[in-house]
Structure formats: C-alpha cells, structure tokens
C-alpha cells in the first residue's frame, strides 16, 4: 500500500518536471502525451494503493488486473465517496484521450495543442490544461493519502 502510494508520488515528481521544465522549452505534442501517460500511471498506482487498503480492511478478498474493472470495484467498495468517483471518471477519460487519434496544432509555440475526439466530444490538451490536470492529480494523491492514513501534516 505504501509502496504503491510512493510510486504514485514518484510519477508525480516526474510530471512536475515535464510540466514546468520540459514542456516550457520543447512545446511539443509528444511531451503533452508523455505527461498524460504519467498522469495515468500515477492514478493507477494510487488506485492500487486504495485497493490494497480495502483488502487490508477486509472489504474485498482480491481485485482484478484489468484497470477498468478495478475502477468499477472501487466505485462499488466506496459508494459514498463522490469525490473518488469523480477522480475515477476523470482517469477513465484520460485513458480514452491517450488512446484516441490526435492532431497537432502550433507545435514549438506557446499554444501547442493536442486535439482528440472522445465519445463525440472534441478535447484540446494544452499547456494550461495540463498544468490544471497536474494540480488536480496532486490534490488526488493527497486525498488518497489522507483517506488511507488519516490527515497528515507533511507535504511532499
């Protein structure tokens, strides 16, 4: 459980560098895509920590390897955690974004954009939206840490 959470934080540190350093200087869709992949990894590690916590609390006996099934199981285990459900839905959306065909716009410029169509909705991934997503992920990891271990004073 702690190991999964630690790995989520490690991925978060890598994302921080990509968002605030690499993307600032390269401004390519490949970096945007890499950031999204790392976000997906962080969410996966955090969900794994939550599943291990549920197993430790004897809420479940085992969990599936399939990530979508894991998300459904988390929704069933914690039906009252609406905040968690929103994060799970966002994670599933990120997975669809990363798998979709994408178009590049304004590469090597400030407004580099990756455009994808997911479920009939056009989504534009930009430098600014990735920063917001990064902050959302930081809040999520803090939420999971507080959920599992209780409120903590330390900041990562």
Number of strands: 3
Low-confidence stretches: none
Q: What is the arithmetic mean of pLDDT?
A: 94
Q: Based on helices, strands and strand pairing, what is the structural class?
A: mainly alpha
Descriptive terms for the model:
single chain; about 160 residues; mainly alpha; 3-stranded antiparallel β-sheet; 5 helices; about 65% helix; about 10% strand; globular
Explained architecture:
- The protein has one domain (2-100, 127-149).
- The chain has 5 helices and 3 strands; from the N terminus they run ααααβββα.
- The chain has helices at 2-26, 29-56, 67-77, 82-99, 127-149; strands at 102-105, 113-118, 121-126.
- A hairpin with a 7-residue loop joins strand 1 (102-105) and strand 2 (113-118).
- Helix 1 packs antiparallel against helix 2, helix 2 crosses helix 3 and helix 2 (29-56) packs parallel to helix 5.
- The radius of gyration is 16 Å and the shape is globular.
